[in-house]
C-alpha cells in the first residue's frame, strides 16, 4: 500500500482518488475548504463535485496540506492550471524528497507559456525526472462510475512512471506507460481549446461533418505545435491525443465543450462564465497556447479563432467564416 496525497478535491482529483484507493492505496485528499473536507469524512461523498459517488474508507480528506502530504510517496496535483504556481508556493516544502509528483492538469500557464510539469519544476524545485503526467480520455464522471478507460502515464523516468502506473491500475482504469511528457501535456491542454470550438459549432446547430473536420484539423495543429516543442509525433495518435479529443469534443460531460456550446447558442461570454461552476481550462489556455505557437511561428488557426471569440469579442459566425476562407494548402503540410 502506497501513501498518496491528492491536492485538489474537484471532479478529477476526487475521481482519481477513487481510482488510487481502489487500486489499494491509502489516499489523503486535500480540499481548500475545511467544511468540504469535514463533509467528505463524515458522509463519504464529495457533494459539490461527484454527489453520486460513495467514497471508500481508504480515502480521507483534510484541508491541512502538511497532514495530506505526510509520508506521501506519490503527490497528485489536481487544481486549475492557472492556480498551480501560487499553490506550489505554499505546498512545495511539504512534498517529500523522493515522492513522485503527478500532474493531472490540462493547461498552459498564461504569461509564461509553461506546461504544468515546467511550472512544478520552476515553482517547487522538483527534479523533472520526478514529475509524472497522467492524461487521456478520462471524463471524471465516467471514471467515477467505474466505466472502463485508459490513460497515459508519462515521465522521463521509467521508475517514476512505473510507480504511478502501478498505483492507479484497476479493472476499470488501464494506465499505459509513456516517455513523452511534452507531447502528452500539449495534447491535453490543446484538446480543451478544440473542444471549445466543437462546442461552438454544435451550439450553432452544426453536425458531425463539422465536428470531424474540427477534430481532425485540431489534431493537426496540436501535433504541429507539439513537434515544434520537441514532442514525439506518435503521441498525438495515442490516448492523450486522438483519444482525449474524441472524448472531450463529443461529450456533453465536457466542461470545455459545454462552454463553447453556450457561446455558439448566442450566450455572452460573461453569461457563460457565470454559469460555469467548474474549470474549463481552454478558456484561459487558448491565449497561452496561441502565444506559445506565435513564439515558435507555428500556425494554429482553430486555437487562434477560439482566442478571438474569448478574448477579442469576435462572434462565432465570424470565426467560422474566417476558418473556411483560409488560403488553400496541402492537408499534410
Ligand atoms: N474533470 C475531468 O473530467 C478532468 C479534468 N482534468 C484536469 O484536471 C484539472 C482539475 O480539474 P477538475 O478537478 O475537473 O476541476 P474542478 O473545477 O472540478 O475542481 C477544481 C478544484 O480546485 C479547487 N480550486 C479552484 N481554484 C483554486 C485555487 N486557486 N487554489 C486551490 N484550489 C483551487 C476547487 O475548489 C476544486 O476543488 C484541470 O486541469 C482539468 O483540465 C483532467 C482530466 C479529466
Ligand atoms: O479532460 C477531460 C476528459 O479527458 C475533461 O474535459 P473537460 O475539462 O472539458 O470537462
Automatic annotation (TrEMBL):
<feature type="binding site">
    <location>
        <position position="11"/>
    </location>
    <ligand>
        <name>NADPH</name>
    </ligand>
</feature>
<feature type="binding site">
    <location>
        <position position="255"/>
    </location>
    <ligand>
        <name>NADPH</name>
    </ligand>
</feature>
<dbReference type="GO" id="GO:0006650">
    <property type="term" value="P:glycerophospholipid metabolic process"/>
</dbReference>
<keyword id="KW-0443">Lipid metabolism</keyword>
<feature type="binding site">
    <location>
        <begin position="255"/>
        <end position="256"/>
    </location>
    <ligand>
        <name>substrate</name>
    </ligand>
</feature>
<keyword id="KW-1208">Phospholipid metabolism</keyword>
<dbReference type="GO" id="GO:0008654">
    <property type="term" value="P:phospholipid biosynthetic process"/>
</dbReference>
<dbReference type="GO" id="GO:0046168">
    <property type="term" value="P:glycerol-3-phosphate catabolic process"/>
</dbReference>
<keyword id="KW-0521">NADP</keyword>
<feature type="binding site">
    <location>
        <position position="106"/>
    </location>
    <ligand>
        <name>substrate</name>
    </ligand>
</feature>
<dbReference type="GO" id="GO:0005975">
    <property type="term" value="P:carbohydrate metabolic process"/>
</dbReference>
<feature type="binding site">
    <location>
        <position position="49"/>
    </location>
    <ligand>
        <name>NADPH</name>
    </ligand>
</feature>
<dbReference type="GO" id="GO:0046167">
    <property type="term" value="P:glycerol-3-phosphate biosynthetic process"/>
</dbReference>
<dbReference type="GO" id="GO:0005829">
    <property type="term" value="C:cytosol"/>
</dbReference>
<feature type="active site" description="Proton acceptor">
    <location>
        <position position="191"/>
    </location>
</feature>
<feature type="binding site">
    <location>
        <position position="244"/>
    </location>
    <ligand>
        <name>sn-glycerol 3-phosphate</name>
    </ligand>
</feature>
<dbReference type="GO" id="GO:0141153">
    <property type="term" value="F:glycerol-3-phosphate dehydrogenase (NADP+) activity"/>
</dbReference>
<keyword id="KW-0560">Oxidoreductase</keyword>
<comment type="similarity">
    <text>Belongs to the NAD-dependent glycerol-3-phosphate dehydrogenase family.</text>
</comment>
<keyword id="KW-0547">Nucleotide-binding</keyword>
<feature type="binding site">
    <location>
        <position position="279"/>
    </location>
    <ligand>
        <name>NADPH</name>
    </ligand>
</feature>
<feature type="binding site">
    <location>
        <position position="106"/>
    </location>
    <ligand>
        <name>sn-glycerol 3-phosphate</name>
    </ligand>
</feature>
<feature type="binding site">
    <location>
        <position position="106"/>
    </location>
    <ligand>
        <name>NADPH</name>
    </ligand>
</feature>
<keyword id="KW-0520">NAD</keyword>
<feature type="binding site">
    <location>
        <position position="281"/>
    </location>
    <ligand>
        <name>NADPH</name>
    </ligand>
</feature>
<protein>
    <recommendedName>
        <fullName>Glycerol-3-phosphate dehydrogenase [NAD(P)+]</fullName>
        <ecNumber>1.1.1.94</ecNumber>
    </recommendedName>
</protein>
<dbReference type="InterPro" id="IPR036291">
    <property type="entry name" value="NAD(P)-bd_dom_sf"/>
</dbReference>
<keyword id="KW-0963">Cytoplasm</keyword>
<comment type="function">
    <text>Catalyzes the reduction of the glycolytic intermediate dihydroxyacetone phosphate (DHAP) to sn-glycerol 3-phosphate (G3P), the key precursor for phospholipid synthesis.</text>
</comment>
<comment type="pathway">
    <text>Membrane lipid metabolism; glycerophospholipid metabolism.</text>
</comment>
<feature type="binding site">
    <location>
        <position position="12"/>
    </location>
    <ligand>
        <name>NADPH</name>
    </ligand>
</feature>
<dbReference type="InterPro" id="IPR006168">
    <property type="entry name" value="G3P_DH_NAD-dep"/>
</dbReference>
<keyword id="KW-0594">Phospholipid biosynthesis</keyword>
<dbReference type="InterPro" id="IPR011128">
    <property type="entry name" value="G3P_DH_NAD-dep_N"/>
</dbReference>
<dbReference type="InterPro" id="IPR006109">
    <property type="entry name" value="G3P_DH_NAD-dep_C"/>
</dbReference>
<dbReference type="InterPro" id="IPR008927">
    <property type="entry name" value="6-PGluconate_DH-like_C_sf"/>
</dbReference>
<feature type="binding site">
    <location>
        <position position="255"/>
    </location>
    <ligand>
        <name>NAD(+)</name>
    </ligand>
</feature>
<feature type="binding site">
    <location>
        <position position="191"/>
    </location>
    <ligand>
        <name>sn-glycerol 3-phosphate</name>
    </ligand>
</feature>
<feature type="domain" description="Glycerol-3-phosphate dehydrogenase NAD-dependent C-terminal">
    <location>
        <begin position="180"/>
        <end position="320"/>
    </location>
</feature>
<feature type="binding site">
    <location>
        <position position="33"/>
    </location>
    <ligand>
        <name>NADPH</name>
    </ligand>
</feature>
<feature type="binding site">
    <location>
        <position position="136"/>
    </location>
    <ligand>
        <name>sn-glycerol 3-phosphate</name>
    </ligand>
</feature>
<dbReference type="GO" id="GO:0141152">
    <property type="term" value="F:glycerol-3-phosphate dehydrogenase (NAD+) activity"/>
</dbReference>
Amino acid at each position: 500500500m502506497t501513501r498518496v496525497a491528492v491536492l485538489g478535491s474537484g471532479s478529477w482529483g476526487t475521481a482519481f482518488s477513487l481510482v488510487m484507493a481502489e487500486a489499494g492505496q491509502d489516499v489523503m485528499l486535500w480540499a481548500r475548504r475545511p467544511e468540504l473536507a469535514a463533509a467528505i469524512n463524515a458522509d463519504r461523498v464529495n457533494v459539490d463535485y461527484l454527489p453520486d459517488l460513495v467514497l471508500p474508507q481508504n480515502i480521507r480528506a483534510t484541508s491541512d496540506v502538511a497532514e495530506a502530504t505526510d509520508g506521501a510517496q506519490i503527490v497528485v496535483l489536481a487544481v486549475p492550471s492557472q492556480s498551480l504556481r501560487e499553490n506550489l508556493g505554499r505546498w512545495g516544502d511539504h512534498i517529500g524528497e523522493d515522492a513522485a509528483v503527478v500532474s493531472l492538469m490540462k493547461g498552459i500557464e498564461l504569461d509564461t507559456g509553461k506546461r504544468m510539469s515546467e511550472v512544478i519544476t520552476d515553482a517547487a524545485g522538483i527534479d523533472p525526472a520526478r514529475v509524472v503526467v497522467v492524461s487521456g480520455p478520462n471524463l471524471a464522471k465516467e471514471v467515477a462510475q467505474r466505466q472502463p478507460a485508459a490513460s497515459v502515464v508519462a515521465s522521463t523516468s521509467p521508475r517514476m512512471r512505473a510507480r504511478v502506473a502501478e498505483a492507479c491500475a484497476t479493472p476499470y482504469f488501464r494506465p499505459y506507460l509513456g516517455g513523452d511528457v511534452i507531447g502528452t501535456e500539449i495534447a491535453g491542454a490543446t484538446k480543451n481549446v478544440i473542444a471549445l470550438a466543437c462546442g461552438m459549432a454544435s451550439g450553432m446547430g452544426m453536425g458531425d461533418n463539422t465536428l470531424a473536420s474540427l477534430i481532425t484539423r485540431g489534431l493537426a495543429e496540436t501535433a504541429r505545435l507539439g513537434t515544434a516543442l520537441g514532442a514525439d509525433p506518435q503521441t498525438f495518435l495515442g490516448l492523450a491525443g486522438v483519444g482525449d479529443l474524441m472524448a472531450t469534443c463529443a461529450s456533453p460531460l465536457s466542461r470545455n465543450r459545454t462552454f463553447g456550446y453556450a457561446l455558439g447558442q448566442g450566450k455572452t461570454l460573461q453569461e457563460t462564465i457565470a454559469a460555469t461552476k467548474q474549470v474549463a481550462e481552454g478558456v484561459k489556455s487558448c491565449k497561452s497556447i496561441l502565444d506559445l505557437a506565435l513564439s515558435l511561428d507555428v500556425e494554429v488557426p482553430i486555437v487562434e479563432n477560439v482566442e478571438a471569440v474569448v478574448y477579442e469579442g469576435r462572434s462565432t459566425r465570424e470565426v467560422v467564416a474566417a476558418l473556411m476562407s483560409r488560403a488553400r494548402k496541402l492537408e499534410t503540410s
